[in-house]
Design brief:
about 525 residues; mainly alpha; Growth Hormone, Chain: A; 4 domains; 21 helices; globular; Drug resistance transporter, EmrB QacA subfamily protein; membrane; EmrB-like
Length: about 525
């Protein structure tokens, strides 16, 4: 009878753990979804606020910047004062900011609200993995981290689909209001079911200088990359870009110096001396810059050149994102039996093959029927690597540093995405312009008109060049078909180049995993 009672208590505890996982997964899903969900609402917001796309860019950038800058800070606070407390506070902040954003009377209020919302999103994201690791143990930990990884993998690509549906049926405020009821549910479940972790740093001093330096350095670097993305024709030596990037790197160097000297540093730099951990953050960076960054260009291909609507694009991108849901729990179980090192390495190589398949089919008549095999392989990569990466990142990490380990993985994944969007965009711009400059002069039309069209196409860039080439005004020209063919080919050349670059990035990530990460036997020796 005593044994039956113990089994019943164990079962109840297990159910509570899975409900707690649901609460944390819901918070993570909302936080990451809001990175991309706004994209499809921008055309509607332009009309509502009577503004331009340039001014609206800060609705996206405010979230991206603040989110990346505060990830490590929220991780450290969670390690010091209890991860549940900081996670819960972040969740409440996110819900309140979402409600304010939905009611925003002006663009300024919305921009500020997005920044505040990002602080909440960073807190939820940075502490979720550490909370799961401390709320589960043994084989259940691998499964739980696998499920959380599947949520992470599916959340960002779901933005266009969910955002498109909400905007078309309920208006742009709905993309923020939808967070309120689900956020309240997550708050209740977190309060009741999530177990608190010890306050490891209650006797330590807060490393305020380290937090300030990390925030300033990351802000300058990421903002510099955003400026470069917004002005692709500016040189890297342009003062507005060079000052931010060089200044940011200098501040981060000072941050490393300070962290090596203070008694209670924000980051234990010894973590970067561990070959295995370095391998995991390289993979996280490769995943962000290869897979996640590429999704923005894949979306543009489908909407701007193939002609799918936002919802049609979102539905087709389920081919990529659904694998995170399908494979996450399975991979979580397999990671308890097989080497994370080889699962990640093989997973990254699968993504490389997917990119190669896509590069072979890009052309004037490309459609989803041509793209889906490569997209499936990309999705399988995300579905395998993300859950295993979370588990691998926690291996050998002291309990009091799990939050920071989680935060660093997320920082490198987010930083990789930002660098990838800029880097891949520059590659595409270069190939696009080179093709236009080479072939447009061959069109037999008046020089003044030709120069005007070329300037308009280059100014519009690869994303919007299709709109210019197929505009009603140009369609009346006897040279329209020839110009349109050149523009589409120029876009395709750029798309092929950045696709092959993404293939190289994920393959490098796979090699890094194979060379740096621990094998199964090495991991067991540490336990």
């Amino acid at each position: 009878m005593g044994i039956d009672l113990m089994d019943k208590q164990h079962q109840q505890t297990s159910i509570k753990q899975w409900i707690a996982l649901g609460a944390m997964g819901l918070g993570v899903f909302m936080g990451l979804l809001d990175v991309t969900v706004v994209n499809v609402a921008l055309p509607t917001m332009v009309k509502e606020f009577n503004t331009t796309f340039t001014d609206l860019q800060w609705v996206l950038n405010a979230y991206t910047l603040v989110y990346a800058v505060t990830l490590m800070i929220m991780s450290k606070l969670g390690d010091m004062y209890g991860r549940k407390k900081i996670f819960l506070g972040s969740l409440i902040l996110f819900v309140v900011a979402s409600a304010v954003n939905g009611m925003a009377p002006s663009l300024l209020v919305l921009d500020i609200g997005r920044g505040v919302q990002a602080i909440g999103g960073a807190g939820m994201m940075s502490l979720s993995m550490a909370l799961v690791a401390s709320n589960f143990s043994g084989k259940q930990r691998g499964l739980a981290l696998g499920i959380l990884g599947s949520v992470i993998g599916v959340s960002t690509p779901s933005g266009p689909l969910i955002g498109g549906y909400l905007v078309e049926n309920f208006g742009w405020p709905a993309i923020f209001y939808v967070n309120v009821p689900f956020g309240i549910l997550a708050v209740i479940l977190t309060v009741v079911y999530v177990k608190e972790t010890p306050s490891y740093g209650k006797n330590q001093k807060i490393d305020i200088l380290g937090m300030l330096l990390s925030a300033i350095g990351l802000f300058a670097i990421i903002y510099g990359l955003i400026v470069k993305e917004s002005h692709p024709h500016w040189s890297w030596t342009t003062p507005e870009i060079a000052t931010l990037l060089i200044g940011g790197l200098a501040v981060m160097a000072l941050f490393v110096f300070v962290e090596s000297r203070v008694a209670d540093p924000m980051i234990n730099l010894a973590m970067f001396k561990k070959r295995h951990f370095v391998g995991t953050i390289i993979v996280a960076f490769a995943l962000g810059s290869g897979i996640y960054a590429y999704n923005a260009f894949l979306t543009a291909l489908m909407q701007n050149y193939i002609g799918y609507s936002a919802i049609e694009t979102g539905v087709r991108q389920l081919t990529l994102s659904v694998w995170s849901l399908v494979l996450g729990p399975i991979v979580g179980i397999l990671s308890a039996r097989f080497s994370n090192k080889w699962m990640i390495s093989i997973g990254m190589f699968i993504g490389g093959i997917g990119f190669l398949l896509i590069s072979l089919v890009i052309g004037p008549n490309v459609s989803f029927l041509n793209l889906w095999p490569g997209m499936v392989l990309m999705g399988i990569t995300n579905g395998i690597v993300n859950p295993v990466l979370n588990t691998a990142g926690m291996e050998g990490v002291a309990p009091n540093e799990m939050g920071m380990a989680s935060g660093l993985l997320n920082v490198f994944r987010q930083f990789g995405t930002t660098v990838g969007v800029v880097g891949l965009g520059l590659i595409q711009d270069g190939r696009y312009e080179k093709h236009l400059n080479t072939f447009l002069p061959n069109v037999k039309m008046p020089t003044q008109a030709l120069n005007g069209i070329k300037d308009a196409l280059i100014s519009a860039g690869p994303f919007s060049g299709h709109t210019v080439a197929f505009s009603a005004r140009l369609a009346k020209s006897p040279f329209a078909h020839e110009v349109q063919t050149i523009v589409v080919t120029a876009y395709n050349q750029g798309m092929i180049a950045l696709t092959l670059t993404s293939a190289g990035i994920v393959v490098v990530g796979g090699i890094a995993a194979a060379l740096l990460m621990r094998s199964k036997s090495e991991s067991q020796d540490l336990q």
